[in-house]
């Protein structure tokens, strides 16, 4: 209930702040359009959360798994460290394989096909289509 109330309070602040700006129309949005629409959605969500909080004792959530968080956070680091030295294909394959390690690995064709498909797509989109100056290998 406290979280829902906090969301409604933040929504009210943005609604008051956005009301001082020109709203505009759907085709000609003014500077107040996005803050007001966002505040309305946030306030509605806050009300729903507050009502859910009033219903009773909330269940104790499980602790988040640390392995997926660390692995997914490591993927952009690996990509940035490898892209200049190894090229697009090995970098995308290594990053895709590392991302697969976020969950327990089940052996199958997708363990090979997904990294290869992503690397082929990356070469086509970034090197061939957009002309980014990154070597394929």
UniProtKB/TrEMBL annotation:
TM stretches of this protein: 6-26, 33-51, 71-99, 111-134
UniProt keyword annotations, A-Z: Membrane, Transmembrane, Transmembrane helix
Residue ranges annotated for the DUF1468 domain, each copy included: 3-135
Pfam families: TctB
Domain of life where this protein originates: Bacteria
Protein known as: DUF1468 domain-containing protein
Organism annotation: Paracoccus siganidrum
């Amino acid at each position: 209930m406290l979280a829902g109330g906090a969301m409604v309070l933040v929504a009210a602040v943005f609604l008051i702040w956005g009301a001082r700006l020109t709203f505009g129309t759907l085709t000609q949005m003014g500077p107040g359009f996005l803050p007001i629409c966002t505040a309305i959605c946030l306030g509605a969500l806050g009300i729903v959360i507050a009502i859910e909080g009033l219903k009773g004792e909330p269940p104790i959530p499980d602790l988040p798994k640390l392995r997926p968080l660390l692995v997914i956070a490591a993927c952009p680091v690996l990509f940035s460290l490898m892209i200049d030295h190894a090229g697009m294909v090995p970098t995308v394959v290594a990053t895709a394989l590392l991302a697969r390690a976020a969950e327990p690995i089940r052996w199958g064709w997708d363990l090979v096909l997904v990294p290869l498909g992503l690397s082929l797509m990356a070469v086509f989109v970034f090197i061939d289509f957009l002309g980014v100056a990154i070597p394929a290998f």
